[in-house]
Write a structure and sequence with these properties.
Elements lengths: L7 H6 L1 H5 L13 H30 L3 H20 L9 H11 L8 H8 L1 H15 L3 H6 L5 H32 L10 H9 L1 E2 L2 H14 L15 E2 L1
Antiparallel strand pairs: 1-2
Helix pairs in contact: 3-4, 3-6, 3-7, 4-9, 9-10
The protein binds protoporphyrin IX containing FE.
Length: 239
């Protein structure tokens, strides 16, 4: 085969390196391993992009550029939707083929995904920036929810944060459905009962106060005992 010059497109996209990152046909343990590897690689790329956007969204909130922050949050939402949607592809894999791939994986687990772990950690800064913004605007969440028109721009931004939070939860829920379909709900793994662990994760939220305020608002209409005020803690949360 004669060496040919690489095109501008190939140079820019770095197709040679990119397409060299998958096992060759000889190396694959079974046909479906290609889909398994490619989907994981693509997911890592989306998670990388999402982190990149997350940093910008945070900076824009800090700079009071709310309309632009919303655009960035919308992009993050779309990325999470894609991440969830493409899991469907791996449901075309038979459980038998998965177990063949699984044995080639060794002790590797999705829990070690660097993109996922970074995405769990980074929204804390976004959350802090949003809290500071509420302070600058001198408005309490509950009051804004009682009357969204009082600061429509701020309200829209908060809803964009909820969109992102919800889409990330949907990715985790979608993944749990995939796991149940491929390995079953009660199959033990190296690290205990995976479905239980994953189910616990699907209840985590990045911005618990934005979910809690719904319950608080509801109390305006249906009185009950006072609610826990989750505004002063951090880290991924459960609801
Ligand atoms: C055939 C497809 C898949 C199966 C059967 C599967 C199975 C599992 C299982 C059993 C766990 C629990 C931890 C463990 O036992 O290792 C897990 C965790 C995880 N997987 Fe997958 N997975 C699949 C595809 C994917 C894909 C495509 C991604 C994309 C990034 C992914 C990301 C993750 C993440 C991030 C975790 C940790 C989640 C958490 O701690 O909440 N998995 N997976």
């Amino acid at each position: 085969m004669s060496a040919r010059e690489i095109t501008e497109y190939e140079k820019y996209i770095r197709t040679e390196e990119l397409l060299g990152l998958q096992k060759t046909d000889d190396e694959l343990v079974c046909h479906d391993e290609m889909a398994f590897q490619v989907v994981h690689q693509v997911e890592e790329l989306w998670m990388k992009l999402c982190q990149h956007e997350l940093a910008l969204a945070t900076a824009r909130i800090e700079a009071d550029r709310l309309a632009e922050a919303r655009n960035t949050l919308h992009r993050m939402y779309l990325i999470c939707r894609l991440m969830a949607g493409q899991l469907r592809l791996l449901e075309t894999m038979s459980p038998r083929a998965y177990f063949t791939v699984r044995s080639a994986l060794g002790r590797g687990s999705g829990q070690e995904s660097p993109g996922f772990n970074a995405l769990l950690a980074k929204p804390a800064k976004l959350r802090a920036a949003t809290k500071a913004l509420l302070g600058r605007r001198g408005v309490k969440l509950i009051d804004l929810h009682r009357e969204p028109a009082r600061d429509a721009e701020l309200f829209a931004l908060l809803e964009a944060l909820v969109d992102f939070d919800e889409a990330f939860q949907q990715f985790r829920q979608r993944h749990l459905v995939l796991v149940r379909r491929i390995i079953g709900g009660r199959t033990p793994s190296l690290k205990g009962a995976p479905a239980d662990l994953l189910e616990h994760g699907t209840r985590q939220t990045f911005f618990p106060e934005l979910w809690l305020v719904r319950e608080q608002l509801f109390r305006d209409f249906v009185p009950g005992p006072p609610l826990f005020d989750g505004e002063d803690d951090d880290g991924p949360h459960h609801h």
